[in-house]
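Input sequence (139 aa), recorded before submission:
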Amino acid sequence: MKCLSVRQPWAQLIVDGHKDVENRTWRTGHRGPILIHAGLRLEKDAAEYYAEQARQNDVPWPETLLKGGIIGVVELVDCVASHPSEWYDPDSIAWVLANASPLPFLPWKGRLGLFDVPDEVLAEHFRLHGIEWEPTESE
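Predicted structure, token format:
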């Protein structure tokens, strides 16, 4: 399955369904589910800001943001040059996201670009966590 590394807190905001656009400098032809990998780097000021926003608005937010592994899955539905989302950066390509879902943490090394995580690794991880999963045709 395809996977994308994203820095925290952006990765958490994606898998929690709050961030509907990921800004990139490049397009991809891939459409469909992609795993979200939380990179090792943390944008501390942004993380503190969103943690405080969550507290003030009574929205669940993890005590500690997970880093260095897969934390969720989202559907990549389009790549566009402009998007009305509040998350869109006009100097970027908007990767339009939908149907986000957190997953049990799977430690994994991130990479640049879209990269593959072997289906057999995911199948075993999901089996251990009681999650039924079958790879899709696009994987």
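Checked by second reader. Residues 108 and 119 are 14 Å apart (CA to CA).
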